[in-house]
Amino acid sequence: MSSDERTGLYVESTIIMTTVRLVAPFVLTFALFVMFHGANSPGGGFQGGVIAGSVVMMLAFAYGIDAAREWVDVRVVAALASGGVLVFAAIGLGTILLGGNFLEYHLYEQFVSHATAYGIELVELGIGGIVASVAIGLFFLLAAGFGHAVDSPEGEN
Amino acid sequence: MSLSLIEAVLLVFVLGCAIGAAVLRDVLAALMAFAAYSLGISIIWVMLEAPDVGLTEAAVGAGIMTILFILALANTVRPQENGLFEPISVRTIALVGAFVVVMLATVPSLPAVGADGAANPVVSGEVTQYYIENAYADTEVHNAVTAVLAAYRGFDTLGEAVVVFSAGVAALTVLRQEVFA
């Protein structure tokens, strides 16, 4: 029943498909710009991550949610979400191992120059990964609805 | 405090959208009013020189939230009802009105928009001045907001990032799914 509703949501339109195909690379580039350039202009990981996630939603809008679901690799989404948390926590805890406080970036100066700038950049990328993957995940989960959950028996998951 | 024309128009637009989101009977219409409200507020943030907040409001409030709400709506049954507006009880108006009065009572104690120096304790405060003077030397980033977010208040930000991550995990758990797709 829910799958019927979902196919009813999708309208195949050449105009939308062409527009999305044209715009999507630029939106993804803009998302990465917002993430990388957050140090010197408005933006950062949270905003860039949401914009990156919206690329997948645009594709779903143009080609249908089920097509987008098949195209997106769930392992990449999961890796981005948990990888982001791990990167952030590792950078933060690493400075404690080096004898400093949490996120005391300049302690990495002994390994790389401009460690603080690069450290902040990596943290922003980690946040971007978390936000983008969770946004994509919530989108697909909500699109699927409770249909699967109700159909599958208790304790089978 | 005088308002420019565009500020006045934006404020009226945002106020109208907010009231529309509250009183419109059709859920989809209320949702659209809510999205328009977010977009208007994000422009106001930019005009108040808070582009970071404006970008977040536009991307999250007007963008992702609207999409997620529409998806949730598509998975529910929308009753066809007549009448454009929700019937509003006097008690609700009294309660909301009282709340608005309480909130408005705090407005006179805020510094004027754009006020500088001693007239604006937010700008002249010790912490703000420290960030403005030392952010670049300490963190090598020009955007002081990023410096506070990723360096000075980095531990809080780790918490926020984990909250987003947990929200995803919680959604998986509630919907009894194992993968994000």
From TrEMBL, chain A:
Na+/H+ antiporter MnhB subunit-related protein domain residues: 15-135
Subcellular location: Cell membrane
Membrane topology listed for this record: Multi-pass membrane protein
Superkingdom of origin organism: Archaea
Keyword Membrane among UniProt keywords: yes
Gene Ontology annotations for the cellular component aspect, listed alphabetically: plasma membrane
Chain ranges passing through the membrane: 20-39, 45-65, 77-102, 122-144
Keyword 4Fe-4S: no
Pfam families: MnhB
Signal peptide residues on this chain, from the entry's feature table: none
This protein's UniProt keywords: Cell membrane, Membrane, Transmembrane, Transmembrane helix
Entry-linked PANTHER family: NA(+)/H(+) ANTIPORTER SUBUNIT B, NA(+)_H(+) ANTIPORTER SUBUNIT B
Protein name per the record: Cation:proton antiporter
Organism: Haloarcula mannanilytica
Automatic annotation (TrEMBL), chain B:
Topology class, membrane: Multi-pass membrane protein
Annotated ranges, domain MrpA C-terminal/MbhE: 125-176
UniProt domain MrpA C-terminal/MbhD: residue ranges: 12-76
GO CC, one annotated term: plasma membrane
Subcellular location(s) per record: Cell membrane
Pfam annotation, one family: MbhE
InterPro entries reported for this sequence: CPA3_Na-H_Antiporter_A (IPR050616), MrpA_C/MbhD (IPR025383), MrpA_C/MbhE (IPR046806), Nuo/plastoQ_OxRdtase_6_NuoJ (IPR042106)
Gene3D superfamilies: NADH-ubiquinone/plastoquinone oxidoreductase chain 6, subunit NuoJ
Keywords: Cell membrane, Membrane, Transmembrane, Transmembrane helix, Transport
Transmembrane segment boundaries: 6-24, 31-48, 54-76, 88-107, 158-175
Protein name: Cation:proton antiporter
Organism expressing this protein natively: Haloarcula mannanilytica
Higher taxonomy: Archaea, Methanobacteriati, Methanobacteriota, Stenosarchaea group, Halobacteria
